[in-house]
Amino acid sequence: MSRHGTAVALKNNFSLTTLLLAGAAIQALLVLILPTRYAVLPSLSLVFLRILDTLLMTLGLTRNRYLDPAILLGKTTYQIPTASGHLPSHPSAEPITLFMLSTRCNHPLGLFAPAFKEVGDHMFRMTRDLALHLDPTTSGFLGQTGWINGGDRDGGNELMNISYWRSPAHVHAYANGPLHTEAWKWFNQVILKERGIDYISISHDLFHVERGNWENVYVNAEPTGMGRTAVLRKAGVEGKGEEDVWVRGVVEARRGALKSSRGRMARRMEEGEGGEGKAEYWGSAMDESE
């Protein structure tokens, strides 16, 4: 998890009531220690600076920090590149496998509960391994994103990793590898049997979608989910390129077949409504490589 993600997880680990009470306690402590005029100065100054910062961004006098450079303005869609690292001949041409792995701590201490850090460490090692150590040309791994679910009920956050693969066989191959096997054996032996811990939950969902049955669209958005995946184009493929290049299949979707859900699943082509070729589909490719 990134530093920002860790900060969000820690913040969401406490209820709004707890955070307000903590702030009130700090303010009360300052009142006891300092003269009143000085005791209220820190909180009033922070509130004033926050209001001023928001007002300046709203009026366009300072840069809108929330409009991150990674956000793609307009309407885009993501298509899975082929194994060789090129855009396919038509939309939704590749099958996709979605794997969702999550954990949650149902304990009053939340993230600080006994043994939960160890569970998080195992998950972090696996997500880091996916990002850095797998051979992208043979593993079938396409990319991953992390999510925090903290709004469906009282209790700790659900921490979820969503990864994208070319097939269930690739997921199972990784699951039978050393890192996941070690983590799974440790959880069953140590957490469940030796310590008898029942407040830590883990779960997964696995979906496989055949070609022509998935699509996505992003409007004024930073690509997330499938939009965060990439394929490695090896140097010299088809006699092109002198070095390896990571390819993202983000293309413009404001016009043509890609402007509709049916078109992004190549249903127009199947139903004979359009004879778009590869050039017509991908003529407005925005980010084929990086």
3D architecture notes:
A hairpin with an 8-residue loop joins strand 3 and strand 4. The chain is built from ten helices and ten strands. Helix content is 36%, strand content 21%. By secondary structure, the protein is of the alpha+beta class.
Helix segment tally: 10
Q: Reading side by side through the largest sheet, how are the strands ordered?
A: 6-1-9-10
How would the global form be characterised?
Answer: flat
> Given the helix and strand composition, which structural class is it?
alpha+beta
Number of strands: 10
> How far apart are the termini?
23 Å
Q: What integer is the average pLDDT?
A: 84
Largest sheet: 4 strands, antiparallel
Helicity range? 25-40%
Residue windows where pLDDT falls under 50 for at least 5 positions? 272-277
What is Rg?
Answer: 24 Å
Q: Strand percentage, roughly?
A: 15-25%
What is the N-to-C order of secondary-structure elements (H for helix, E for strand)? HHHHEEHEEHHEEEEEHHHE
